[in-house]
Each structure stands twice: as structure tokens, then as C-alpha cells.
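My current task is to audit a protein record that another person submitted. My question to you is simply how this chain folds and whether the C-alpha cells agree. This is what I was given:
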Amino acid sequence: MEDADFLRFPVPAAVHSAGVDLVDLCRWDLAVARTQGELLRRIFDPSEREAAERAADGTRTPERILGQAFGVKEGVVKALGGLPPGARFTDIRVGITADEPEPAGWPVRLHGTPADWAECHQVELTADTRELGDDMALAWVVAHPATQAGFPR
């Protein structure tokens, strides 16, 4: 796969921090089944879970879509340097739509202490995820200056 085919849009020139996560979707499926969905309720808010249900199709289940979104959330935690005290995974909201792939990545909205961190550092986040085959997915997140021109929002 060519780099141009893998990255749907350019990585910003100015990067404050970044995070990458590799998700083994088979292990993810097992964890979801073992916890009888409690894992999904702890990590994703209702709107994210409902969006995954709407985006599911014959090839992608809601659980697999949420597995990729989990990779994005893990990438956000790494870009932040860890989950701030008092923060929860539900403070990181990943935009999930039925239009896959997103032309400008997966939207990320922060709430609570993660949003305070982004405001303090004057950054916004851009994220994307791709299935790699063999039930693996790669997610990446870049925190870049909020005023950087020419980068998709």
C-alpha cells in the first residue's frame, strides 16, 4: 500500500503531540463478549454506541466499529500524556458515521479535564483509523495548533 493510499489527508506540519494504537479486533471481540457489553458502556457514551449501530453493515459490526473507535480513544490518551486525573474514556467522544471512510478522519471532541488540557495547550485533535487485515486496526491521533490553517476540521 502506498503512503498516499494509507493516509487520507496530510499530517499537520506543526505537531504538539501524537498517539498511535494497534487494536487486535479478535481480542476486542472476546473482551466485549466476556463483559457482556459492560466494557462498551464504560468506554462509550450512548450516542457513540447508537452511532455504531447505525453505521454497522454487512461487513462491519457495531462492536468492530467501536473497537476501532477504542483505538482512537487510546491514541488520544497517549497524545495527552495519559488520562488526566478524574477523566473518563467517555470524556473523549469519537464521531462515528455510516459514511466510512470519513474524508477528514474520525472527529474527536473532548469534554471535562481532557478538554481543559486541549484548551490550555491551544490544540485540537485529528484522528483516523484503518483496518490492516488479519483482524488488526491501526488508530492515530495528532494534537496540533488549533489555528493551523489549511488542515481539515
